[in-house]
Amino acid sequence: MYGADVTRLYILYKAPPQDVLEYDTTSIIGMHRWVLKLSRMVELVSSRFRRVPEAEDLSKRDSWTKEEKRTYLVTQKAIKKINGKMRFKLDIPKDVASDENALKDTIFGLEQTKKWLVDRTSGNKLEIKKMIYVGDGKLVNVIAK
């Protein structure tokens, strides 16, 4: 009446396999309701998910071209902070990131940097007090007043 799965669950739940089990009809009804509830939940979840593409399709679709791989190997992400707040991230060549002067020229040539180095109330250009480089240009913090 209840099926093999419900019976197995009932036996394992009620007593360890090495002990003697006294059969109780009220407990197996609860186990049957639990299996039905679990089955409904699995059907609901599986109906809401789209078909997952095969792994081979994903690897072909997400593969990089040779040019993208070369670009990735020679660039790095740099986080740009002005007055301690992260303002933007940019990709820069690794040789520029390792040279502080080249990095400084690159960063101050960007419109994003110029925008943040102007006082919003007066419109005056802020004076750069200090520049902090962390990890070969991975993080650049500009202190301006």
TrEMBL record:
Which is one GO molecular function term here?
leucine-tRNA ligase activity
Q: What is its EC number?
A: 6.1.1.4
Q: Name the InterPro entries on file.
A: Leu-tRNA-ligase (IPR002302)
Superkingdom, according to UniProt? Eukaryota
| EC category name | ligase
Q: Which GO terms describe its biological process?
A: leucyl-tRNA aminoacylation; mitochondrial translation
Keywords for this entry? Aminoacyl-tRNA synthetase, ATP-binding, Ligase, Nucleotide-binding, Protein biosynthesis
Q: Where does it sit, as one GO cellular component term?
A: mitochondrion
Recorded family membership: Belongs to the class-I aminoacyl-tRNA synthetase family.
UniProt protein name = leucine--tRNA ligase
Species assigned in the record: Smittium culicis
